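User: Need the bound-state model for NAP:
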Amino acid sequence: MYDVIIVGLGCAGYTAAIYTARYKLSTLIVGGEEGGTGMAAAEVGDWPGEIHTTGPDLMQKFKEHALSFEEVEHKNARVEKVEKTDSGFRATFQSGETAEAKAVILATGTKHRKLGVPGEKEFSGKGVTYCATCDAYFYKGKNVAVVGGGDSAVEGAAIAAQVANKVYLIHRRNEFRASPYWVDRVKARDNVEFVLENAVVEILGNTVVTGVRLEKEFNGSDAIDLQGVFIEIGADADTLLAEQLHCELDDRGHVKVDAGMRTSTEGVFAAGDLSSGSNHFAQFTTAAGEGSIAANSLFHYLEG
Ligand code: NAP
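Assistant: Bound-state model below.
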């Protein structure tokens, strides 16, 4: 029986583990993908104390920091189920193994949103990907499209433009949700073409992607020939485990938390991108803040 099981190996989860360890709580931190969505950040310039770093570097440091405590046990395993027991909670992993704890912190982050157009599923992994910054390198010298207008899409377009021959940034409005920093970076590139107030209605290909069909004509055609499509239209909170535990969700589908990152289910805390906290401002800094608050509340909860 651990004091706490933290589900999620991202920024919020590792930060929570650092804090639970310092509260001397026996901690199991477990998840399917190390680093979480932070791994997609090719450049990080807003982590205080590091003028320039990358998501993978930052997440590696978080992991090392968390694992430097003897109270923390780390497990790479997808958690399929979490349920309430008489003495606390039981997590079941994909392998069928289980672990129990007195309390739980959910830091399961988000899942990529899908466009839902013909060809998307068929060419997934064959030119269609959901992380421009992770996969851009494979499209060196090629023509690609990035779909979306938030930070993920615009940062993705900026990173892709460093290696690709040409990047089409396709966005349904003519204004960007992304921070001006990334918009300016993209505008400064002469190999990025903006396709605004338009939408991808089909992804074309044979065995791999060969192009996209647009809702409206662009430069005299409703199709663009290209080899890669990065779909970066946001993400939905991964609330599978939270729902198993009957945690209430907010109107955006995030796990509702109070200022102490407590969910509506006693003994269950949520931190990071899946939570309704930090005014839905999904950043490394806010995820880390939420992870530390969740650990603090959990400590007081166990103290009774
Ligand atoms: P986001 O901010 O929700 O933006 C999603 C974008 O996709 C929006 O521009 C939206 O258009 C568009 N979109 C949504 N559904 C669409 C659809 N069905 N078809 C076409 N376009 C669609 O998502 P995100 O960019 O992944 O960012 C998520 C969070 O992570 C944000 O809080 C962001 O600040 C943060 N983040 C931060 C950084 C950073 O600071 N470096 C990097 C990545 C992500 P509309 O604008 O018209 O709604």
